TrEMBL record:
Function: Plays a role in cell envelope biogenesis, maintenance of cell envelope integrity and membrane homeostasis.
Gene coding for it: yciB
Subcellular location: Cell inner membrane
Organism: Paracoccus limosus
Family: Belongs to the YciB family.
InterPro entries cross-referenced by the UniProt entry: YciB
PANTHER family: INNER MEMBRANE-SPANNING PROTEIN YCIB, INTRACELLULAR SEPTATION PROTEIN A-RELATED
Record field: transmembrane: 12-30, 42-64, 71-91, 97-118, 138-154, 174-191
Domain of life: Bacteria
Protein name as catalogued: Inner membrane-spanning protein YciB
């Protein structure tokens, strides 16, 4: 297995979060405007998506170049961003980009559920270096994370279908990452309970 190279934490955070924050800034500046490009009017949301896609591709490639490795979730996210973001731009319809978030979480939940059914904990394979735990701890965490992803998929559908575009952008930019951070903080006792002894 190829060992990922270490990079500075601030650089890693910039590459991972920078595209999303750039999308947020552009959308907030252009959300009440339309711009004519090639004879077609585009909303601020679509313009922000136009910028987000190539920046996301560039930042992911840079992360891969610097670390020598990408997580499966990063690859899946990039593919869905390009496909559904591209559809939103091509068809001038923001719904595809919003649905992309739902699909990402459903795919992750499905993969975690499948790994449990096959008795092969893929989450453990991906994260065991960062969180050394016993197998039972990984099984519990996988169940909880799969349920979280299902909940986030449902929440995304409710937000984009019933609330304003600005609310959805705020939810995607700040709400979803905050929920993920809170999830791992709330599971701190699980990590402690099932942590491997230091000599392992």
């Amino acid at each position: 297995m190829t060992q990922a190279r270490k990079i500075k934490p601030w650089l890693k955070a910039t590459l991972e979060l920078g595209p999303l924050l750039l999308f947020f800034v552009i959308f907030m500046r252009l959300r009440d405007k339309t711009v004519m490009l090639g004879g077609t009017e585009y909303s601020g949301f679509i313009l922000a998506t136009m910028v987000f896609i190539p920046v996301m591709v560039a930042s992911t490639l840079a992360l891969w170049r610097l670390t020598g490795k990408l997580a499966p979730m990063q690859v899946a996210t990039l593919v869905l961003v390009v496909v559904f973001g591209g559809l939103s731009v091509w068809l001038n319809d923001p719904r595809f980009f919003k649905i992309k978030v739902t699909l990402i979480y459903l795919i992750f939940a499905g993969l975690l559920g499948l790994s449990l059914a096959l008795r092969r904990n893929w989450l453990q394979l991906v994260m065991s270096e960062a969180l050394p735990m016993r197998d039972e701890g990984w099984r519990i965490l996988t169940i909880r994370l799969a349920l979280l992803f299902l909940g986030l998929a449902l929440a995304n559908e409710l937000v984009w279908r019933t609330l304003s575009e600005t609310t959805w952008v705020n939810f995607k930019t700040f709400g979803l990452p905050a929920i993920m951070v809170a999830f791992f903080v709330l599971n701190a006792r699980l990590f402690e309970r099932y942590a491997l002894p230091r000599d392992e």
